[in-house]
Please model this.
Amino acid sequence: MRTDFLVPTSPFTNDNFFGQGGLIDRMFDTSLPWKILKTLSTTENQGQDIAFLPSLDVKSDEKEYTIHVEIPGVSKDDVKLEIHDGVLMLSGEKKEEVTDKTNHVLERRFGSFERQLSVPDDADIEHITATHTNGVLTITIPRLAPKANAKAITITSTEA
Model:
């Protein structure tokens, strides 16, 4: 089983302590089976870079992994979920509402996002399901039964 560590990353931190690949990443590099491989969030609003980055939680029990992704205001049709070479790829876009009204305060964030997570070796990628309810995407990945570490070996005799 892969033993990578799940470390949330943010486009707002770019330091050597908490940032992706920083000291915290290296300290706990062998703790848990998940690792965020890529976090990308981009948009442009009135000349300022403003990122929409959905938060996520990864939980597990002996039967399955569950990932909850907060994507309020994002339609399920604007989200793409794929798995490729052991990497779960989530991408989408939170679209800004276009109106003729003058904006006075803009605190909501819009734009494209992409999250990539390595999938543990015991994940059953053939039976992944996803549901979108009340702005939360729930991804369920069943776990494969553990492989037996012991194997009986037949002993043969070379005596005549």
The domain at 23-142 is CATH 2.60.40.790 (Immunoglobulin-like). Helices lie at 23-27. The mean pLDDT is 76.
